Amino acid sequence: MDFDRVLEKCGSFGRFQFVILILYGYTNILSSLHYFSQTLITFTPEHWCSHDDLHGLSAESIRSIYSNVTNPSCTLLNGVVNGTGIADEQETCQNWIFERESGYESLTTELKWVCDKSHQPAVGQSFFFVGSVVGTVTFGYLSDRIGRLPAMLMATVAGASGDFMTSFVHTLPWFAFSRFVSGLSTDTMYYLMYILVFEYLSPKRRTFGLNIILAFFYCFGLMTSPWLAIWIGNWRHYLWIASLPALGVLAYPLLICESAQWLLTKKRYDQAVKCLKWVAKFNGRQVEDSVFDEFIKHYREKVIEEQKLTKHEDTFMGMFRTPRLRRFTLTLLLKSVIITLSYDVINRNMEGLGTSPFKLFSFTSINYLPAGCTILLLQNIIGRKGMACGALLVGGIITTVTGFLIAFLDPKENALLLAIMIGLGRYGSTVSYDAEIQYAAEIIPTSVRGRAVSNIHVIGLASSSLSFYVIYLAKFYKPLPSIFISCLMFLGAGLCLTLPETLHKKLPENLADGERFAMNEGCLYFPCFKKHRQSLTETGDKKSDA
């Protein structure tokens, strides 16, 4: 009487799961508002050095005047003669004219962090990723020490506090500090809630429940956030609106309970049974006490057997002790770097493409819906490995084509085509990113899932700090960022072949299970091909019998 069987009796897809999925969706909205807020608040519109002769002129007229001036954003004019600007090489620019998007006041336009101060928003973003590394390690550790639910609540409140603090800053040191605090919850609040939902859903429902909710709610948050920022019109007020809804997570303990699987790994059997009884009551199920007695007996006997076999407590470092788990762990770490860096570069590279970055970001965010549907329709057919490998392969091809289109086409004349290609690129990166989360969570044993997933995310998030440097490669050759990212995605597709398939298999609960998991499986094993071969064999047997 293991956990999956007891969960079936208590209800593995009932009212309780419906509530926890809705809360997971709410968390996805918070996560989308939080993660991409730094992009929206630091958006730098086209700008020129201010001059008395330029006041009252349209943006097109100013561009015409500055047409013969090198670096018009930071070069002061000495005057305008016959519609042409005369550069003043001696004086430095102190004030600017910004072409604001619908009057939106960003951090860079308000604090005038441009030209010789243009590095300051990037410094804040760097501290954001430093905070994300610290937060992922800290809250990942706490999730396996004090529980998934309290760690998730702490992470969400920390991130919201950082965003709220950011809205009051005026100097670089305070901006960097507040972004560090904000970064503490980056991805952490999302993946901890993901693990909690993951452990209360039946294996048959995980792909549907997790990916459809993710696609719809995360897409909703991404598509509405640019319009919300424009409607509010000020980056400080936007951060207020984006951070205050995070207080809603404080009500989660009233509706859901701690992970019963985590409680079992901590030998808190009575609390695990209490959680399962709460699930059964919520779902309107009647489960006899004898079922829970047999359930506890099963896990106590299992612990005794494991203690005889090993003297080591399951830890993340324990995943490096045995050869197969070591290979799986290293592959997951490298794959996280590839997918996270690719996802971040593709999603942030929105400027200079002939369309408003706000509109381009919003409209191309709709890709999350077809991306979620793609995973839903295909993942249970071609398997987790096939989904992860195929998404990276297709994403790499799309990214390569997009890079060369950017190089050889005029962005203003081909804005629609480039927007479509950017949307397809985001689609490929989104499918690979979302598929990787579930795949990694299924390969990693339950006993170290919180710490291992957090550490894998740490490595991925640390690589995100390189995204700004990858985008900067376009200064040397426009398609270079796309070529670099596509090569990484092709490498990631190859790495996926070395991982085991998890579809329709009992997932490992401890390190010993993880080492034995899919022991005799080949690199080119895909469930869809196996079914096809079986159907051909059955057809051949029927013909021979006839």
From TrEMBL:
Compartments (UniProt record): Membrane
One Pfam family from the record: MFS_1
Segments passing through the bilayer: 12-36, 122-142, 149-168, 180-201, 208-232, 238-257, 328-346, 358-378, 390-409, 456-474, 480-499
GO MF terms held by the record: transmembrane transporter activity
One Gene Ontology cellular component annotation held by this UniProt entry: membrane
Highest taxon above the source species: Eukaryota
Keywords: Membrane, Transmembrane, Transmembrane helix
Membrane topology category: Multi-pass membrane protein
Name of this chain's protein: Organic cation transporter-like protein
Organism per entry: Drosophila hydei (Fruit fly)
Name of the coding gene: LOC111604222
